[in-house]
Amino acid sequence: MSFNPFKEKGIPIENQVTNWSNLNSKPFNKNEVHPYTRCRGILMNGIEVEAAIFLHQFARHTNDPDVKKDLALTRRVEQQQQKAINWLIPGDQSVLETTIGYEQVAVDLTAWMCQNEPDPYVKQVFDFGLLEDFDHLYRYANLLEMKQGIKAEKLVGKYTEIMPGRPTAEEHRHPYDDVRKPGDKKKMSPQTLMNVLTLVAGEQQTMNFYMNVGNTLEDMIGRGLYLEIGMVEEQHVTQYESLLDPKASWFEMLVMHEYNECYLYHSFMEQEVDPAAKQLWQTCLGMELTHFKMACDLMKKYEKMDAQEMLPAAFPKPIVFQSNVDYVRQVLANQVELTAQGTDFVPKTKLAKDSKYPQYQKTVNTGGAPSDQVIMEHVKKQGKDYRYLLKGEHPVERLREAA
Ligand SMILES: [Fe+2]
Ligand SMILES: [Fe+2]
Ligand SMILES: [Fe+2]
Ligand SMILES: [Fe+2]
User: What is the mean pLDDT of residues 363-375?
Assistant: First the structure.
């Protein structure tokens, strides 16, 4: 019997708020945790942060006290879930080590979506973003080895390669060139909806993380790297959020958010190898099923809409954290020279005469980019840059040698 989120019984809402000791999760051992358990935790933290912030925004856009009360109730639980999940990270995992996890999430999550995305335009957007986060992983890995003597391969396992992607300094575009074509909720497949909602939340949390922790580094190159990449994450949030349908109402967005949470916990519960994390995903799924039902009831009451006409009874294909080495290499070989022009992607050599890209590049990169400086510094100190290659030399000739 397949899992039907419209029919499954969740944990009653009045039983969902819990005590401090239950929330204070026992952190994992950073040397033993499976890289993809770390990734799932990072992603679900991002999903819960989005849930809380979205519910706050909704509350600020309604004057109905009953709706506000229901939003406050589920929001309190989303906040508790966020704490329980993010507190899995141990105190001895440094900001930089956690950052490697964030970029591994971006790489392997996006790469999975690229290969499981039915809409060709959305897939193209994912491919484009993939190569940028892939490069961030390489830049941070070099900083990590230089500052803490830790090789990032210890964190990513044998799953994800570390080498240049689209060089970060080349990723800075005029804001207009990061806005993509909007989706249409009537035509968008459930898989596309899940992919985009998930990626928006993940990228948004990466953006939040860098804006908050980037200034905890002591050296100027590290501080510079976080602020530079933090600005690219702003571009990524701009890009992915613009794929959503702006015509969806607040209630529809609420239903979609809760369905997405059910879908993700269900996906991760099935594939989790860590028993404590698996238990947490399962408990959270039980909570989300109730949130989803409450959201559907609210939408029905206030907008006379039936969620069953919006979303399928069987979840789309589950998102899986898995190695994507061959896929990433293929996209690198074919798309590393692309940039964006308006809502489309073009090779840098084919930009229109009035393109905003060169001027924006000049403005921000004058005086040098920290993402280049970190590599130069590494080469100066250790004779070469840090890379972790699983399948031979870099597929792009110009990226084989450190600049
Ligand atoms: Fe949640
Ligand atoms: Fe990134
Ligand atoms: Fe990103
Ligand atoms: Fe929820």
Answer: 98
Q: Is residue 11 part of a domain?
A: no
Q: What percent of the chain has pLDDT over 70?
A: 100
Cα 235 to ligand 3 centroid, rounded to whole Å:
8
- pLDDT of the residue at 333: 98
CA distance 264 to 348: 37
> How would residue 160 be classed by pLDDT, with cut points 50, 70 and 90?
very high
- Residue 13 inside a domain? The answer is no
Mean pLDDT for 249-273 is: 98
CA distances from 68 to 47, 57, 123 (A): 21, 11, 37
Query: Residue 377's domain spans which residues?
Result: 34-60+95-249+298-399
Whether 134 maps to a domain, the answer reads yes
Given a cut of 70, whether residue 65 has pLDDT beyond it is yes
What is the 302 CA–ligand 3 centroid distance (Å)? 36
CA distance 159 to 100: 13
Cα 102 to averaged position of ligand 3 atoms, centre (Å): 9
CA of 89 to the centre of ligand 2 (A): 19
Residue 372 belongs to a domain? yes
Q: Which of these, 237, 257, 361, 252, lies nearest to 304 by C-alpha position?
A: 252
Which of the ligands is closest to the CA of residue 233?
3
Q: pLDDT of 275-294, one tens digit each? A: 999 999 999 999 999 999 99
The domain total for the chain is 1
Ligand nearest to the CA of 71: 4
DSSP helix/strand/coil, 340:
strand
> Whose atoms come closest to the Cα of 228: which ligand?
2
CA distance 27 to 157: 19
78 alpha carbon to ligand 4 midpoint, in Å? 6
For residue 32, the CA-to-ligand 3 centroid distance in Å is 26
Decide if 399 contacts 134 (C-beta within 8 A). no
- How far is the centre of ligand 1, averaged over its atoms, from the C-alpha of 263 (Å)? 11
Q: What is the pLDDT of residues 1-26, one digit of tens each?
A: 689 999 999 999 999 999 999 999 99
